[in-house]
Each structure stands twice: as structure tokens, then as C-alpha cells.
Write a structure and sequence with these properties.
elongated, eight-stranded mixed sheet, 34 helices, 917 residues, 15% strand, alpha/beta
């Protein structure tokens, strides 16, 4: 068995081009048309068309076709080199701005400022680099070691060759467990079932035959019974086939370009860039104004330039890259403890901002395996006899067990109850074939002759039944009872279940050969109903996500009937609660309060299928996507289109999938999530990988994402509002003071201490109320917050100016001492207010009463305040231009701090009420 890397199905090529705005690739159209044509031709004609034969190609043919078509490979997502990964982390506008300011500072002799900014840049870039590198390495380790060979016939001999060396025209041999190595046309097949779940989302295997498919209604190559596709696998049976397409010319490879193209900018990327440019615009106004005002009023242009440069450094939120990266890394570590790999750090915040989670069905919401859902008699009652006879049939069947047989044999308790190996002995077997669509085993029951047990398709088996087991009695199988049986099967089918009939026949003991003629005059025992069940944690996970404001939508390639049944079980059908997966069927119609399968009309809004989507414009689909919960029978391009339109409507969209057909959607979403059993292309396209089967970790991921974003937002709001307030203070002070409001070195020192006080923000807790709803980047809200909170700091800055000028005489006698006194006082007041105000901004509650910061954040705040208070008394005071502050100033400062905290709390409370969210 082998597993190939990247690619996906483009079934839109032979139907209508899914996206109205896209132009179809002529090669894709031609390939789709060629496959359909091959499906309608006899096998010998297809061989002739491929210039091949049952003896296979010659070595010369293979070599020439390898040169013509290239190796049988599709494009993988390029593994990032060290330099490319570094470049991706460096090309952030804020990182570039910090690097430029550091360079200018170094050139003007400010080594301290240059070193500080350089340290912030290096720390943020290096942390992000190593975290993402480790995550990618872990994801690569998930890819199982696989063999990459296929069995081909060349020069009349079977041989094993590397998959990459297959060419169109090669004759390949397939057996149970093999992956299909290209797009192929069957030449011969015996009991062949192919699992196409990774391509189409269908959970049950599909029957394949070698006869030409000449159905007039055949419009999609995927529906052709004589074609198989790269990326699918053989569930049971054997086959010989001719290869029609390899590599990127296969359906599997047809969307490789869209998967390997650069990922679209996510909500997080867009938000962080918008905030960065907001701060850059603020600086672009502020710094030239400060430079010109001080140059014109003081006459010292060099001093004005250095002061403006220091102001630029002070206004730059240089801690943002580090705060963001440390928060995201902390979130990634927390997720890793829950066995979740975070491949791209930004995905954590997107996880928290996500308000719509789109998910595939098979293998994500469901187990990705078939279970025996019901074993019932003709009245729809659970029957142990039906289960027992079915177990004997599957137990004694030879050859590879089908998924349905495996589902029956999982009921191991039956083996003990029936004492299968002591009470029963196998006598004979009548194998399955596609004409009869049934199989039988004959067993000898101790002391009771032979028992033929037949299991197969409903219509075919009912035609063989003349009697019916009704409890302990055997009654004639009349037309009325036949109608009753078909109605029961119809209800089961409508409920999304695959149904097999079970019959039996008692025969006298004796040595003889059993044939299909013995499959007659059977007694109908009952029915077996199979389903790919939802994961045990699916319903609870969906309820928890709904409670957190995340709407779940199903996007699947499977049919709408099966999909709706699963959605009903997990509580996704509007107006219903999760229903138990097993229960009596007799007399049952739709569940109470549940209508039959609904179409997406103005009155419905429940199910939308691919054939309806392909006839909609983007504008028409945009009107549907918010109210429709279930999208079924989708091609990969349909899934990608739905996600794109949801994002265009302002949603932050997650997508969870595990199949080849999910890769484009995983790539298009703000956050792509794959599960432990996903194919490698799904893991390669995803941002987050769940290593455990439980979906409950989704809630943990959402909460962690919101916690991370909450702490990032604390720094952003505080830094932005503080910088905005400083803008008024610096401009005002520059206008009326006869000296600089603060020396450049003092601004840099203030900025360094303030930044150090914020390094513990990633350890802080976030209010439970804030975590309860999705949180998106809202630069408009940040701007409003700046306008509301920022000027408050300026009020107290100006209060400090007035106190120093008129109470302590800095205006009347502006000598060096009074200038230093002014600088020391404003430095201290500015550092104290900026450091302590985080405790107000960090929560919507009342600080110190209803909500306390984390211990590390509290300690760093106190330490920085203490350092700031001691600096004027330290040996560094002379170098920094500080002098001792009078005792009265400390009393006035305490009053200003209390007033500042109270006023900020009042304004913040008003802001929260005025702009909730």
C-alpha cells in the first residue's frame, strides 16, 4: 500500500466550472472528457487507444512515455528553507520599522536604543521561527513510512516498479489494500470495491466493474463504474487496469497549483498589519511635527532631531512582535499538552476569532468506518436472531472481509453466545458476485442438519424469499408483507442507512456441492443497516462550540440523505436535539419536529447541494451561506468557494477535514484543522493537527485562541492609547516649554522600563466573560479606545507640567537644575502611570477588587515602579540627568495616580457599555 503526497479532485471540470468567475483550464477539460470517453468504450478499445495490450508496454515504450509525460508525481507544497522561513518572519512592517529605527539610532550614536530595538526584533523573529520549525517537523513525522511501488505488466511479465515510474498505457494489477496509482480504466475486475472517501466523502466503498459504462445519464467521470482514480484504495477484490493519466494530469493532481499557491492572508495577518500601519501613520504625523516645533522654537536642530528620533522610538510598540510571538508560543505549548500540533502560530488567534467552523463529515465528524447500526426483523424490532445469523455468515466467509462484514464481526459477544466454533461447522460457501449481488455460507448445526445463510442486496434477496420469520413462526411471504418490508427498507434508506437483507434455508445434512440454485425458497430473517457513525465526542463538541458563539456547518461530498442523518444525530439540524443512533423503526417516520430533507429555498435554509451551488452566482450564494447549515454533494471547488464567500461576508472561518478533497478548503480558511487519520495532503494544507480522536479539544483550542488574543490586545490597547496620549503631551510641551520636555536618553530609558513591565502579559488571565464570544481584529474599535482612553494620560501629564512649572518654579527659573527637576518629575509620573494603568485596561471589571492580574504581571509592575522611584537616588542619576524629587511631589504624584486610575476606570466602564463586544 502506498500513499501519495499532494493533489485533489477537480470534478468541476466535467460538470460546470464551479466558480462562475474562473476560467476552466483547457487541459483539465480535455482530460475529463477523455476519461468519460474511455468509460464508454470497451476495454480492448481503450487498450488500443493507449497503444498498449494485456502484455503491457515494452521497456522502450516506457522510456519514451516517461520523457513525454514525466514522472508520476504531483506537486508538493515546498518545504520552507531556513532563509525563506526567516524572510517570512522578517517582512512584517513593524519589524522593518524597528530595524530602520535601530539603524538610525546606531548611526546617531544611540547605541542603547539601537540595542534595545534590535533585541526586540531578534527575539520576536527567532521565537516564531523555531516554534514553526518544530511544528513542521512534528507534522512531517506524522507521515507514515510507506512503500512506493506498484505491480505492473511489462513485456508480458509482472514486476514491481516505483510509483513515480508509471506511465499512461501501463497495465497495473490491483488487490485488496492497494492504493490506485493513477487514473485508470478497468480491464477486468473480480468482486472489486473501492473506497473513494478521500476524494468524494462517501463513507462506504463503491462497486467497480470492467464493463463499459454506457449510461446516458453519466455526466461525471467519478460516477463511472469502470474508472478508478489516483488517491483511492481497493477495499476488496482484484482487478487489472490500464493507466489513463499520471501525475498532475490526474484528478488527484489537478488542483495542486491551488494547494501549493501562497496561502491567503488570514484574519490575524490582516489585523496585525492594519494595526501596525495605524501606528506608522500616527508616527508619520507626530515625529515630523515634534522635530519642526523643537527645531523652530529652540533653534538646535541636532537636538531636535535626536529628540524626534527618541519620540519615534517611544511611539513604536516595539514589544508587539515579542508579545505576539510569546503569547502564540505559550498557546502552542498549552495546545501541545492536549496533543494538538500547531503548525502556524497565527492560527491560534484565528482559532479564537473563529465564528464559523466548516467541517467535512467523513472521518472528522464521523468515525470514518462502518458500524452495524441496526439488526431488525420485518417489523423494525431489534432481533438477536438476525444478528446471530449475520455473524455466522460473516464469520465463515473466506477471503478479505468487507467493511460490512467487519462491522458485523465487531459484535464479538455473539461468538460466545452462539458457541460458533463448537456448535457450528462450515460446510460450503457460495461467493459474492456482481450479478447476484449476494453471498451465502452453509454451516452444519450440531444435531440439526445444514443451514444456508444468505446476505445481500435487498431487491435481489427478497425475490428469492417465499416465507418470513415472524417471531418463532414462519409465515408465507405475501405481497402485503413484501410491501411492508420494502417500506421499512425505504425508511432506513431515507434515514441515510445502507441496508442488506438476510435470509436462510434449512437443508438436510449430507455431503454435496452447493450452488446458486440452492439460493431459492429462502426464509426472510430481517435486515442489517449500516452507517458511518458520528464520533462519540461530536455532539458535545458542537454544543460547546455553539455555546461559545461558533456556528458549525457541514461541507461534504457525501449525499444529502446520509449527511442529514448524521447532522441530526449530532444536533446540527435546526430545531432538533441530538437523537440516539439506535432504536426501533417500525411505524417511525421523521423525528418529531423534523421535516423531510429540505432544500435551500427562502423557507428552508437547511441543506444545499452541489448541483444547486453550481447554478448560483457568488451574490446568490452569499445570500444563502449564513442561514444554511448543511452543504452536501460538494466538489472540492464548491467547499473552497463557500469558505471564500463566508470570509468575504466578514466571518473568521475554520475548516476541519481529513481527505484529499479537503485540501483546497483547508488552504482557503483562516484556520485549517486536520485530524489524526488525515491523508498527508490534508495535514500539509492545515494549520492545526488534532492527534487524538476526541473533538472536545476544539473547545480548548477556541478558548486558548481567545486567551492569547486577549493578552495581545491588552498590550495593543495600552501601547496605542498611551502613545496617543503622549503625542498630545510631547507636542504641547514642545510648544510652550523653553526647553525639551524630556531628554532623548530619558525617553529611551522610560520606554525600556515600561516595555520590561509588559513582558509578563502572556502569563495573565483573561476574564471569562471576554472569552465567551468570538473576538476578531477590530481596528475601528481600537481607534475608538485610543480616542477615549489616550487623552486621559495627557490630562495628568499636563497636570505634572503645571505642578513643576508653578509649584516647584521650573517656569520662573528655568536653569539647569529646574530643567532636570522637570525632566525627573515627568519621567517618574509617565513611568508610574503607564506601568500601573495596565491593571485597569487588562479587564472590563473593577481592577484590584473584581479582577487581579497574574502574579508575574503584578510583580513586574511593582518592580519597574520601584526601579523608577529609585533611579533619581541611584549612581545612574547623573548620567540620566535626574535629580532628587521633593517630598511634596511624591504626595502629589500619589493623588494623581489615584485620580488617574479612577478616571480611567470610569471612562473604560462607559466605553464598555457604549461599545460592547
Amino acid at each position: 500500500m502506498w500513499k501519495l503526497g499532494i493533489g485533489t479532485l477537480l470534478s468541476a471540470a466535467e460538470r460546470k466550472w464551479r466558480t462562475r468567475n474562473a476560467q476552466p483550464d483547457s487541459k483539465v477539460w480535455a482530460q475529463a472528457a477523455g476519461l468519460l470517453a474511455a468509460a464508454r468504450l470497451p476495454a480492448h478499445a481503450v487498450l488500443a487507444q493507449q497503444k498498449s495490450s494485456l502484455a503491457g508496454l515494452t521497456a522502450e515504450d516506457v522510456q519514451s512515455r516517461l520523457e513525454q509525460f514525466g514522472p508520476n508525481e504531483v506537486v508538493h507544497e515546498e518545504r520552507q528553507t531556513v532563509w525563506r522561513r526567516l524572510w517570512e518572519n522578517v517582512r512584517n512592517p513593524l519589524v522593518v520599522l524597528l530595524a530602520v529605527l535601530a539603524t538610525v539610532s546606531l548611526a546617531t550614536g544611540d547605541a542603547t536604543g539601537a540595542a534595545m530595538m534590535g533585541f526586540m526584533v531578534v527575539l520576536g523573529v527567532v521565537l516564531r521561527y523555531f516554534q514553526e520549525a518544530r511544528a513542521d517537523a512534528a507534522a512531517r513525522e506524522l507521515q507514515a513510512m510507506v512503500s512506493t511501488t506498484a505491480t505492473v505488466v511489462r513485456d508480458g511479465q509482472k514486476q514491481e516498479v516505483p510509483i513515480r515510474e508509471l506511465v499512461p498505457g501501463d497495465v497495473v494489477c490491483l488487490a485488496a489494500g492497494d492504493m490506485v496509482p493513477g487514473d485508470i480504466r478497468l480491464i477486468s475486475a473480480r468482486d472489486l470495491f473501492v473506497n473513494q472517501a478521500a476524494l468524494t466523502g462517501e463513507s462506504l466503498p463503491v462497486e467497480k466493474t470492467a464493463e463499459a459504462d454506457e449510461r446516458a445519464e453519466l455526466s461525471s467521470a467519478l460516477e463511472a463504474a469502470d474508472l478508478c482514480f489516483m488517491g483511492t484504495n481497493v477495499e476488496s477484490g482484484t482487478a487489472t487496469a490500464v493507466v489513463l493519466a499520471t501525475g498532475s494530469r490526474t484528478y488527484f493532481g489537478s488542483l495542486a497549483k491551488s494547494v501549493t499557491a501562497p496561502a491567503v492572508a488570514t484574519s490575524f495577518d490582516t489585523g496585525i498589519n492594519r494595526f501596525t500601519w495605524l501606528m506608522i501613520r500616527l508616527m508619520a504625523v507626530m515625529v515630523p511635527a515634534v522635530f519642526l516645533i523643537n527645531g523652530l522654537t529652540k533653534g538646535n536642530w541636532l537636538e531636535a532631531f535626536l529628540f524626534a528620533l527618541a519620540v519615534a522610538v517611544g511611539l513604536t510598540p516595539e514589544m508587539l512582535p515579542m508579545i505576539v510571538t510569546v503569547n502564540l508560543s505559550k498557546g502552542a505549548l498549552a495546545m501541545s499538552r492536549r496533543k494538538v500540533i500547531v503548525k502556524r502560530l497565527a492560527a491560534i488567534q484565528n482559532f479564537g476569532a473563529m465564528d464559523v467552523l466548516c467541517t467535512d463529515k467523513t472521518g472528522t465528524i464521523t468515525e470514518g468506518r462502518v458500524v452495524l447500526e441496526k439488526h431488525i426483523d420485518i417489523h423494525g424490532r431489534e432481533s438477536d436472531s438476525v444478528l446471530g445469523y449475520a455473524f455466522l455468515n460473516s464469520f465463515y466467509q473466506t477471503g478479505l472481509k468487507s467493511m460490512l462484514d467487519v462491522a458485523v464481526l465487531e459484535h464479538r459477544e455473539v461468538e460466545a453466545d452462539l458457541k460458533v466454533e463448537t456448535r457450528y461447522r462450515k460446510v460450503d460457501e457460495i461467493p459474492f458476485d456482481f450479478v447476484r449481488r449476494r453471498m451465502s455460507v452453509v454451516v452444519h448445526e450440531a444435531g440439526d442438519g445444514h443451514l444456508l445463510i444468505c446476505k445481500g442486496a435487498v431487491e435481489e434477496l427478497l425475490n428469492l424469499c417465499t416465507t418470513l420469520a415472524d417471531g418463532d413462526a414462519v409465515v408465507p411471504f405475501s405481497e402485503e408483507r413484501r410491501r411492508q418490508a420494502l417500506e421499512l427498507v425505504h425508511r432506513l434508506n431515507e434515514d441515510g442507512l445502507r441496508v442488506l437483507a438476510l435470509g436462510f434455508k434449512r437443508l438436510p445434512a449430507g455431503e454435496r456441492l452447493y450452488t446458486v440454485q440452492d439460493e431459492s425458497e429462502l426464509t426472510l430473517m430481517g435486515f442489517l443497516a449500516f452507517l458511518d457513525p458520528p464520533k462519540a465526542t461530536a455532539a458535545q463538541s458542537i454544543r460547546e462550540l455553539a455555546a461559545l458563539g461558533v456556528q458549525v456547518k457541514i461541507l461534504t461530498g457525501d449525499n444529502d440523505v446520509v449527511t442529514r442523518r448524521i447532522c441530526q444525530e449530532v444536533g446540527l439540524v435546526p430545531g432538533t436535539e441530538p437523537v440516539p443512533p439506535v432504536g426501533p423503526v417500525a411505524g417511525a417516520g421523521p423525528e418529531p419536529g423534523v421535516e423531510p430533507v429540505l432544500r435551500a429555498g427562502p423557507e428552508a435554509g437547511v441543506v444545499l447541494v452541489g448541483s444547486e451551488i453550481e447554478n448560483m452566482t457568488d451574490a446568490e450564494l452569499a445570500e444563502q451561506v449564513d442561514r444554511v447549515s448543511i452543504f452536501a454533494k460538494l466538489a472540492p471547488a464548491d467547499k473552497e468557494r463557500v469558505i471564500r464567500i463566508l470570509r468575504e461576508r466578514g466571518h473568521v472561518v475554520g475548516f476541519m477535514g481529513d481527505g484529499i478533497n479537503d485540501a483546497p478548503a483547508l488552504r482557503a480558511a483562516d484556520v485549517g484543522i486536520s485530524v489524526d487519520s488525515a491523508v498527508d495532503i490534508a495535514r500539509e494544507s492545515s494549520d492545526i493537527i488534532l492527534l487524538e480522536n476526541s473533538l472536545l479539544v476544539l473547545r480548548d483550542g477556541v478558548m486558548e485562541g481567545r486567551r492569547v488574543f486577549g493578552n495581545i490586545l491588552k498590550y495593543i490597547k495600552m501601547a496605542a492609547s498611551s502613545n496617543f496620549g503622549n503625542m498630545f503631551s510631547v507636542v504641547g510641551g514642545s510648544l510652550f516649554l523653553p526647553f525639551l520636555p524630556m531628554l532623548p536618553l530619558q525617553i529611551l530609558t522610560n520606554n525600556l522600563l515600561y516595555d520590561l513591565s509588559q513582558t509578563a502579559i502572556p502569563t495573565d488571565e483573561v476574564d471569562a466573560e471576554w472569552l465567551a464570544v468570538p473576538r476578531k481584529w477590530a481596528v475601528g474599535e481600537i481607534q475608538r479606545f485610543i480616542l477615549a482612553i489616550g487623552p486621559i494620560s495627557s490630562i495628568f501629564d499636563y497636570a505634572t507640567f503645571l505642578i513643576m512649572l508653578f509649584v516647584f518654579g521650573a517656569w520662573a527659573t528655568p536653569d539647569l537644575y529646574h530643567q532636570q527637576l522637570f525632566h525627573t518629575a515627568w519621567f517618574t509620573e509617565s513611568l508610574f502611570t503607564q506601568t500601573l494603568i495596565i491593571h485597569v485596561i487588562r479587564t472590563n471589571k473593577i481592577p484590584f477588587l473584581q479582577s487581579w492580574a497574574s502574579r508575574p504581571l503584578t510583580l513586574t509592575s511593582l518592580i519597574i515602579v520601584l526601579v523608577g522611584a529609585l533611579l533619581p537616588f541611584s549612581p545612574l542619576a547623573g548620567m540620566l540627568g535626574f535629580v532628587h524629587l521633593p517630598g511634596l511631589f511624591w504626595l502629589l504624584l500619589a493623588a494623581m495616580l489615584i485620580s488617574y486610575v479612577v478616571l480611567t476606570q470610569v471612562v473604560k466602564s462607559w466605553f464598555v457599555r457604549r461599545f460592547p463586544g
